Structures are given as C-alpha cells and as structure tokens.
C-alpha cells in the first residue's frame, strides 16, 4: 500500500487510543489515526461503531465505501475505471470476467458503484 499511496501510514496515534470512546473499543485506533492525521472522513462498512456525534467532535465525516467510490465518478472517471480494471486484473486464483467481478463487488456491498460501472464493463 505504501507504493500505491505515499504517506498513507499514520504514526503517533497510539497514545490517543485510551482516551477515545466508541461502541467497539477495538475500533478506537481507527478514530485515533483519523484525528492525528487530520483526516476529513472515515470510510468504512462498519457504520454502527462510529457514532455521528463522536465523529462530529473531531470534524470527521463517516462514509460508506459505496458512497465514497460512487462520488469519485464525477471527479475523475478515467482514474476510477483504471483502478477497477487493475484490481480485476490482479485476480489470479480464480480470474474473473468483468461481469463476475462486478457481481462480486455488488455482493460485497457496493450496489451504487456497480450500477454505474456496468456501463463500462467492456473496458473493465
């Protein structure tokens, strides 16, 4: 991941973990890293364990991955499509056709993203 996203790692958040309150204490490291890195949002399928009032205290938004990816489409469609294509091409055991890959993404909780991607299946 470090090669794909330079400066993606967050350091120096560990001391903050004990001070944070979340429904699942095992998620506190995520919030601590977001605070220390001055992130704008936490992108997760695990919405229930990051209460909005808690995140608002740190000016953080909670975003479902389907919403996050879907909103990348108006920003840079070509980059989104290239990323999806690269992810599918990395699947080796087993390989997946574009249609199979989109079906998998939909089953994993990305219906809005997949609905938009289906029009581009020929290039994915």
TrEMBL record:
Cited InterPro entries: VapC50_C
Source organism, top-level taxon: Bacteria
Domain VapC50 C-terminal: 65-119
Protein name: VapC50 C-terminal domain-containing protein
Native source species: Neomesorhizobium albiziae
Organism classification: Bacteria, Pseudomonadati, Pseudomonadota, Alphaproteobacteria, Hyphomicrobiales
């Amino acid at each position: 991941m470090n090669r794909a996203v330079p400066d993606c790692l967050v350091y120096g958040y560990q001391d903050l973990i004990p001070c944070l309150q979340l429904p699942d204490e095992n998620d506190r490291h995520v919030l601590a890293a977001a605070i220390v890195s001055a992130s704008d949002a936490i992108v997760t399928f695990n919405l229930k364990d990051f209460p909005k009032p808690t995140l608002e205290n740190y000016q953080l938004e909670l975003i479902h991955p389907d919403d996050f990816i879907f909103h990348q489409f108006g920003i840079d469609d070509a980059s989104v499509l290239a990323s999806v294509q690269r992810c599918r091409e990395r699947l080796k055991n087993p390989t997946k056709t574009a249609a199979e890959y989109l079906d998998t993404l939909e089953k994993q909780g990305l219906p809005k993203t997949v609905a938009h991607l289906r029009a581009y299946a020929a290039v994915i």
